[in-house]
């Protein structure tokens, strides 16, 4: 079962963890290695990661809904033994690290621990599968994004636009929110970035690029990194580490 991969940033933006399309985890910059399921025999590949707000741990989720906790991330349950209508594609921990959400490709949202369920796309026909999600600041809602660029908002997360009606060259693989929750960026597998609301546009990969992107991590409101399938980062804006790109596993800053 192929996956796009994914990424999570450290609290100060000076590092990140990356999942390869095959589910292998790598750490970069000041992101610590707290363990992984690399080379483990699993029922389904690892498809999502969410870091704790301390930066001292993370959760990994499998396509079957299995959850694996490392470092100071606590285990609150999983879907590993349940029938799912669609594979899990994304997850997010709560602001106080007391729970997490799992999101399926069909738009179902599952809550564990103190994570609050704010709604889902369950039972709603989708043009394309859900591929990623991001929580609103403070955990008062979340956004889901589909492969076609459609954005769906729940709870305190407001809708600022989408690409759902636009013909895209490559499918959407990631979404990141601004610190105040009044905007977000979405990125395609070809590295094309689109900004909505108060999210500032810092650049995209050129149309001629053949680099495969698997996710995006924001650095406050000063920039973002696009994560490649190889786990490298391409930095835009003034993200932490661009002054010493190699130290953060980056391919350098493009403009």
Structure explained in plain terms:
There is one protein chain. The chain is mainly β. The protein has one domain: Methylamine Dehydrogenase, Chain H (7 Propeller). The protein has no helices and 19 strands. It has strands at residues 6-9, 15-19, 25-29, 46-51, 57-62, 67-71, 88-93, 99-104, 109-113, 130-135, 141-146, 151-155, 172-177, 183-188, 193-197, 213-219, 223-228, 233-237, 250-253. The protein starts with 5 loop residues before the first strand and ends with a strand.
Write down the CATH class: Mainly Beta
Q: How much of the residues is beta strand, in percent? A: 35-45%
Low-confidence sequence ranges: 242-255
What is the helix fraction of residues, given as a range?
Answer: under 10%
The CATH fourth-level homologous superfamily: YVTN repeat-like/Quinoprotein amine dehydrogenase
How many angstroms separate the termini? 35 Å
User: How large is the radius of gyration?
Assistant: 16 Å
Assign the CATH topology: Methylamine Dehydrogenase, Chain H
The beta-strand count equals 19
């Amino acid at each position: 079962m192929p996956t796009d991969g994914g990424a999570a940033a450290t609290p100060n933006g000076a590092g990140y963890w990356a999942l390869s399309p095959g589910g292998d985890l790598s750490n970069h910059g000041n992101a610590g290695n707290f363990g992984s399921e690399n080379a483990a025999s699993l029922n389904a590949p690892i498809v999502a990661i969410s870091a704790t707000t301390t930066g001292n741990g993370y959760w990994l989720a499998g396509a079957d809904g299995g959850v694996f906790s490392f470092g100071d991330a606590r285990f609150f349950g999983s879907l590993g033994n349940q029938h799912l209508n669609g594979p899990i594609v994304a997850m997010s921990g709560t602001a106080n690290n007391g729970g997490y959400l799992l999101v399926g490709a069909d738009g179902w949202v599952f809550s564990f621990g103190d994570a609050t369920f704010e709604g889902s796309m369950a039972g709603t026909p989708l043009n394309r599968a859900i591929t990623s999600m991001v929580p609103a600041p403070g955990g008062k809602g979340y956004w889901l994004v589909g492969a076609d660029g459609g954005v769906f908002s729940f709870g305190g997360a407001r809708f600022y636009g989408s690409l759902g009606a636009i013909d895209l060259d490559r499918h959407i693989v990631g979404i990141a929110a601004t610190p105040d929750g009044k905007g977000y960026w979405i990125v395609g597998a070809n590295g094309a970035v689109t900004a909505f609301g108060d999210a500032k546009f810092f650049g995209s990969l050129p149309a001629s690029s053949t680099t495969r992107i698997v996710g995006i991590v924001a650095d406050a409101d000063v920039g973002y990194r696009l994560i490649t399938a190889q786990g490298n980062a391409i930095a835009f804006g003034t993200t932490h580490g661009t002054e010493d790109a190699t130290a953060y596993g980056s391919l350098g800053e493009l403009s």
